[in-house]
Design brief:
This protein is an all-alpha fold and about 70 residues long. It has a single domain, classed as lambda repressor-like DNA-binding domains (434 Repressor (Amino-terminal Domain), Orthogonal Bundle), CATH 1.10.260.40. It is built from four helices and no strands. The chain has helices spanning about 10-20, 25-30, 35-45, 50-65. The longest helix has 12 residues, at about 50-65. The chain starts with 10 loop residues before the first helix and ends in a 10-residue tail after the last helix.
């Protein structure tokens, strides 16, 4: 059984989603259960979201009607 590949969320797509939702980094961090510093690191490209965070970002984006490519392979 083949695994479904998750989108790769880069700095631009994370920042775009947060702005679309009109949230601060702190507010988005609260929604995702991560630290504000983590959101900042995603948005500056220090790190990329992975695992459950990637899935949560995709679910939030879909529910918010945010059109994203998120570097889908």
């Amino acid at each position: 059984m083949a695994k479904t590949r998750q989108p790769v969320w880069d700095a631009t797509s994370v920042r775009g989603l947060r702005r679309h939702l009109a949230l601060t980094q702190d507010q988005l961090a609260d929604e995702l259960g991560v630290r504000q510093q983590t959101i900042s690191e995603w948005e500056t490209g220090v790190y990329q979201p992975r695992g459950a965070s990637t899935r949560l970002l995709s679910i939030i984006a879909d529910k918010a009607d945010y059109e994203y490519d998120a570097g889908k392979p």
